Amino acid sequence: MAAPNPSALAMVPFVSVQDMMRIVNAIGPRQMLREICAYIEADFLRWETFDKTPRIPAHSEEGVIELMPTTDGEHYGFKYVNGHPANMARGYQTVTAFGVLAKVSNGYPVLFTEMTILTALRTAATSAMAAKYLAPKSARTMAMIGNGAQCEFQALAFQEVLGIDTVHLFDIAPKASEKAARNLADAGLKLRICASAEEAVAGADIITTCTADKQNATVLTDNMVGAGVHINAIGGDCPGKTELHRDILHRADIFVEYPAQTRIEGEIQALAADHPVTELWQVIAGQKTGRSTERQITLFDSVGFAIEDFSALRYLRDQLERTGHFVQLDLLADPDDPRDLFGMVNRAKESV
Question: Where do the TM regions start and end (predicted)?
Answer without folding.
Answer: none
